[in-house]
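User: Can you recover a sequence for this backbone? Please restate the input before giving your answer.

Assistant: Of course. Working from this structure:
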């Protein structure tokens, strides 16, 4: 690979690091062709991009990036594959499901919404991370209950402020 080709790959990797807020580093070495194909298919179905990278080029891309990857570059040893995802827990779920049949992929580390996770022992933690959509659903659910109380109070109070206050205070007691 020429110096120019390496620079181009580093630029592409830097761009991908900037465009994705959920990045997983894994080790898929030792998977046979069938298992690798199955993993790629599982990633595709989950809208996860899987790419095998050269450690030195990824490290240079991390350095060139405007993000703070903490100790994540220290995991760049041996074979490394990168998973890019829109959801923080998507790759962890794919890895966990895939490992029911295989020892790999191993989780080296992850960068999720500006937070760095290092080590395969954190896989279950990453699976349980809620996506933005799940968090918004939880918040909306929590907000709906008080809103329903106010609407109900409006209906039963005749629409006056004093009536609303009286109805809501009676419900609290």
């Amino acid at each position: 690979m020429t110096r120019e080709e390496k620079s181009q790959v580093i630029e592409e990797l830097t761009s991908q690091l900037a465009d994705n807020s959920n990045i997983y580093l894994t080790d898929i070495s030792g998977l046979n062709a069938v298992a690798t194909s199955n993993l790629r298919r599982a990633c595709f179905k989950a809208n996860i991009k899987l790419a095998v990278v050269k450690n030195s080029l990824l490290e240079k891309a991390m350095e060139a990036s405007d993000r703070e990857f903490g100790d994540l570059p220290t995991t760049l040893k041996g074979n490394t594959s990168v998973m890019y995802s829109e959801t923080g827990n998507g790759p962890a779920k794919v890895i966990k499901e895939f490992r029911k049949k295989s020892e790999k992929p191993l989780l080296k580390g992850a960068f999720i919404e500006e937070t760095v996770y290092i080590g395969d022992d954190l896989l279950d933690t990453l699976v349980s991370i809620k996506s933005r959509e799940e968090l918004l659903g939880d918040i909306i659910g929590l907000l709906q209950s008080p809103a329903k109380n106010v609407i109900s109070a409006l209906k039963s109070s005749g629409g006056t402020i004093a009536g609303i206050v009286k109805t809501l205070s009676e419900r609290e007691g």
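That completes the design. The chain has a mean pLDDT of 87.
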